[in-house]
Write a structure and sequence with these properties.
Blueprint: E1 3-7, E2 10-12, E3 18-25, E4 34-39, E5 46-51, E6 58-60, E7 68-73, E8 78-83, E9 92-98, E10 112-113, E11 117-121
Parallel strand pairs: 2-11
Antiparallel strand pairs: 1-3, 3-8, 4-5, 4-9, 5-6, 7-8, 9-10, 9-11
């Protein structure tokens, strides 16, 4: 019954912007910490950002700080990742994942995942 669905990916030029969405069904998204991860071909999955379940405490991978913003709209059961000033190295499949009480950078400790949405940054 637990389901996460990502959307909003696409092709964008360097310096452009995209907003990704992660919408939950089967549970109340606001009760959990939610993370964004990404994986490029031939590379390991890496954590990008995370937002806590209560007061909005946020975390970012160093390379995206100042460019990406994570937020949540609990009424819509949705977490967003606003991505600005995109770079070619941001190209990857982006996944959202459900944590427990706490955020983590360890993908192995996130037990519920969406199907992923492709982000391609190219001129």
């Amino acid at each position: 019954q637990v389901q996460l669905v990502e959307s909003g990916g696409g092709l964008v030029q360097p310096g452009g912007s995209l907003r990704l969405s992660c919408t939950a069904s089967g549970f109340t998204l606001g009760a959990y910490a939610i993370g964004w991860f990404r994986q490029a071909p031939g590379k390991e999955r890496e954590g990008v950002s995370c937002i806590s379940s209560d007061d909005p405490i946020t975390f970012y991978k160093d390379s995206v700080k100042g460019r990406f913003t994570i937020s949540r709209d609990n009424a819509k059961n949705t977490v967003y990742l606003q991505m600005n000033n995109l770079k070619p190295e941001d190209t990857a499949v982006y996944y959202c994942a459900r944590h427990g009480h706490f955020c983590t950078w360890d993908a192995n400790r996130a037990h519920y995942w969406g199907q992923g949405t492709q982000v391609t940054v190219s001129s």
